[in-house]
Amino acid sequence: MRRTLIGLAVGLLLPVSIAQADIASDLKADLPVQTVLLNAAKAKVSIDEALRQILDTAPDQAYAAITAALQVSPDQAANIVSVALDKHFNLNPPQVVSAALQGAPDKAGVIVPTAIVRSPGYYTVPIVQRALADGADGSKFLPQAMRTSPRQADSILTQALISAPGQTQSIMKAVIASQPDKATHYVRVALDAKAPAKDVLTAAFAVAPRQAEDIASVAREKAVPEESITSASKAANVTLASASKVGKSGSNDSTLVGGPTNTSTNPISAPSAGGGGGGGESTASPN
After folding, report:
1. Which of 37, 97, 99, 148 has the lowest tally of Cβ within 10 angstroms?
2. What pTM, to 2 d.p., does this model score?
3. What's the rounded Cα separation, in Å, for the pair 40 and 176?
4. What is the torsional sign of CA 29, 35, 37, 40?
C-alpha cells in the first residue's frame, strides 16, 4: 500500500518536473520564446505557469515572453498581465502593458485595467499614456480604467486627451456612455485639458442628448464660441433651445462672460461702445 501511494505521488509530480526541465532546456537551446510556450502547452502546462518559469529562468527575455504569451493565449490576457506584474519579478508596469499590447492589441480593454489594478497608483497615468503612445484605442480601455481608479479618473481622462487628441471624440463617447450621470463633469474636464471643443461637445451631445442644455452651459462657461456649440449640436442632431436665445441677444450669454454692463455706476457719462472694459479714462465734460 505504501509503495502504491509513493508511486502515485511520483506520478503526479513527474509531469511538472519534466515540464520545468523542458522549459529550461528549451531556453538553454535558444529556442524562440513563442516556441518554448507552445512546447509547454503541449506538455499541459498552463500559460501563466509557463510564463512564471520563463521569467524566473530568463529574466532578460521577460518582455518578449509577455508578448509571446499574449500571442499564444490572448484569452488569458488578465492572467498573463497579473503574473508579469507580480512583485517578485519587479517589471516596469508601462513596459509590461506595451509588451502585452504588442501581443494582443485587441485586448487593450483587459490589459490596461488589469495593469492598473496590479500596479501602485502612481503608475496609473503612465500606463494609460504608454498604451495610447503605442496606438491603443483609448475608447476600449479608458472607461474601465476610470472606473477601476475613480480617484484618478479626471487625471486619466486629462492625460488621455492630451496624449491622443485625435481620439477625442471616440474617447469622450465611450467615457460618457459608461458614466452618463457624469457627462457635464467630464465635458468640463475635457475642456480644461484643452481638448478640441467641437469633438468634445459633439460626442457629449450625441451620447447624452437629454443633458444637452447643461452641456452647452458648461461650454459657454468655458468660453467656447457659440458657433462651435451650435455646430457641435447640429453634428450630433441635437437642437438647443438656448442657442436661439443667445442668438437673439447677439452675444455669448453675457451673464456668463463678465455680466451685463452696469450703467448705474456712472450716471453722467454713457459707457463706451466696447463696454466698461476695466478702467476707462473718459470723464464727463463740464458744462
Report:
1. 148
2. 0.74
3. 43
4. negative
